[in-house]
Amino acid sequence: MICKIRKWVLADAADLAAALSNRKVQDNLRDGLPYPYTEQDGVDFISAMLSADENETFAFAITADGRVVESIGVFRQGNIHSQTAELGYYIAEGYWGKGVMTEAVKQVCEYVFEKSDILRIYAEPFAYNTASCRVLEKAGFQYEGTLRNNAVKNGKVIDMKMYSLLKEEI
């Protein structure tokens, strides 16, 4: 399946709301998202991404089959980590297991490394999210280790995994 990353537009809010109003999707994300996720929540998120500093926040919609199937972003860190960025993403359940996210991760990493001074992109999926770990591995990320008891999600203490991709590995 072919996918593309592109800048957000406000008209994407409905597709965003549809995907994020799914508990299975939200169970693999950090806390803080409203449930159910409304179209207005989507408008607010997209507005924030469009007004963010483009050298600090690299935020994109992922499109497949002519529609937005979800979100990917790379976020510059601060201080001594200013040339490091964290990758985050999610995809609508109907597109799980189709290779869309692996392709989107490759596209966004190439873009960030080409357009910025970022040297390292990392991701911290929940250890139980084997599909996300596999996406990162297929996109060329290296597994660096397990962050034990690193988060509390849905009332459970969980491990996270650390993956990274360096600019020279693209």
Automatic annotation (TrEMBL):
Does the UniProt entry include the keyword Transferase? yes
Tell me if Ribonucleoprotein is a UniProt keyword of this record: no
Q: Where is the N-acetyltransferase domain?
A: 3-167
Q: Which GO terms describe its molecular function?
A: acyltransferase activity, transferring groups other than amino-acyl groups
- Alphabetized UniProt keyword annotations: Acyltransferase, Transferase
Q: Where are the transmembrane segments?
A: none
The name this protein carries in UniProt is Ribosomal N-acetyltransferase YdaF
Q: Which organism is it from?
A: Acetatifactor muris
Q: Which gene encodes it?
A: ydaF_2
